[in-house]
Amino acid sequence: MLDAKAPKALRGMYIDGQWRKAARSFADLNPNDGSLWAEAPDGSRADATAAIEAAHRAFPDWAGLKYTERAKLVHHIAEVFERRAPDFIAAIQTEGGGWYGKGAFEAHYVPEVFRSAAASCYQNSGEILPSEYGKLSTAQRVPMGVISVISPWNFPGILTARGFAFALAAGNTIVLKPSEDTPYLGGLFYAEVLEEAGIPAGVFNVITCSREAVSEMGDEMVEHPYVKGVSFTGSTPVGRSIAAKAGAHLKKCCVELGGKDSLIVLDDADLERASQAANFGSFMHQGQICMSVEKVLVQEGIYDEFLQKFVERAARLKVGNTSDKANVIGPLINDRQVARVKAQLDDALAKGAEIALGGKIEGRFVDPTILTGVTPDMLIYQDETFGPVVPVIPFKTDEDAIALNNDTEYGLSAGVFSRDEARALDIGRRLETGMCHVNCSSVNDEPHVPFGGSKASGLGRHGGRWSIETFTETRWITVDRGGRPYPPVF
């Protein structure tokens, strides 16, 4: 068990290479027990403006730096983060309410994001195009300027790094606002790391604020004329608003939003592997992942056997305060999330669903819960849950599975289990999702892949060269060598 400690002392916001105190603060709570984890800076719109202006001033020198120098600095971020991994993991357990193993996974993954971003500095940054007049005709990818990054609380290490690493490596400068639920893990911790890594002043800035100040700070991060692009990861309603505001100002926007992801288990699936994938996908970090399995679709002939295996696995997951490494299922992040999950569970039970496992809610702790008898009129069928409650739904044919998966406004990820890869791939191609994984969970990510969704699950892609395309502009630049004639009248 971790020892109880006094609230963590935070140094302030990080603007133009300096730590700045805010005029006021807000309570950053440990979701396990509601205790005060830290007093976090409650910034204002003026702080956002200062950070944007600092990033704008720093942009020419950062964009003009040799790509080899930028690559070295970004690679150094990975090294510093690795050294700070124990600090990060401890904060995941306390500020983030995450299982120790989840923190260790993020701590291992994040450095690879920066290494992949550093490697992108050595990749192609343009093309040579044919020219009718013998010109040297080029299409070049160039950095845009200031990128606003708004990151979430659920995987504050990975999803923050993914939001800015490639944009930074491409030569953009960054203003980051983390979630008010994890202002340290998703923001100020990164400021400490990038400061130690030697990133020049103004290139990377972190501003934080309370929930009450999010709207005005967020508006500035989108609307300020120096901001050229926006990276947002979070809920679909907020993402719609941000994308609409960015569109009104003709700014590029990459939004990765919610999901209602399915795990489809066909009658020829390996049920041990499939039940493990369902257990991991549904309950990892209390189901608080955009890619979480939110519907397990099982072919009728194997439904009972699969359900038994799934229940047996999920029943072994320990619930409790994540200061204890043995507790895999920790608290939901705040009371609003608990209320949301409870409302969906109560609605389902009132309309005829039955509990195969779990159902207990105690404070912010929700036991892993498996439901049967879920129908399309229930909230838990329609809406993203973002908690450890999942329905298991039978289907008859492959066509039925496809229809059940696509019967949602969301389209982020999916998993399909079958020993017949051709059959699974055929289903996968017909799912309305940005990603699909055969014989694996819907919860999948790697730093260099095109990560993102379709429909209400987002616009744009993070990862590898797709991040570079998202956070750069294409310019057509030519050199004429006397080959293009002009009309004689001129």
Give an overview of the whole structure.
- This protein is of the alpha/beta class and 490 residues long.
- It has two domains: 13-257 and 457-476, Aldehyde Dehydrogenase, Chain A, domain 1, CATH 3.40.605.10; 261-438, Aldehyde Dehydrogenase, Chain A, domain 2 (3-Layer(aba) Sandwich), CATH 3.40.309.
- 39% of the residues lie in helices and 21% in strands.
- It contains 15 helices and 24 strands.
- It has helices at residues 45-64, 67-83, 85-94, 100-120, 156-169, 184-197, 214-223, 236-248, 271-283, 303-314, 335-350, 379-382, 398-406, 421-429, 464-470; strands at 13-15, 18-20, 25-29, 36-41, 126-129, 136-143, 146-150, 173-177, 204-206, 227-233, 252-256, 261-265, 293-299, 354-357, 361-362, 365-366, 369-372, 389-395, 410-411, 414-417, 437-438, 454-455, 458-459, 472-479.
- The strands form seven sheets. A seven-stranded mixed beta sheet has the order 14-17-18-13-12-20-21, with helices on both faces. The protein has a six-stranded mixed beta sheet with strand order 9-8-7-10-11-23, sandwiched between helices. Strands 5-6-24 form a three-stranded antiparallel beta sheet.
- Helix 2 crosses helix 6 (184-197).
- The N and C termini lie far apart (83 Å).
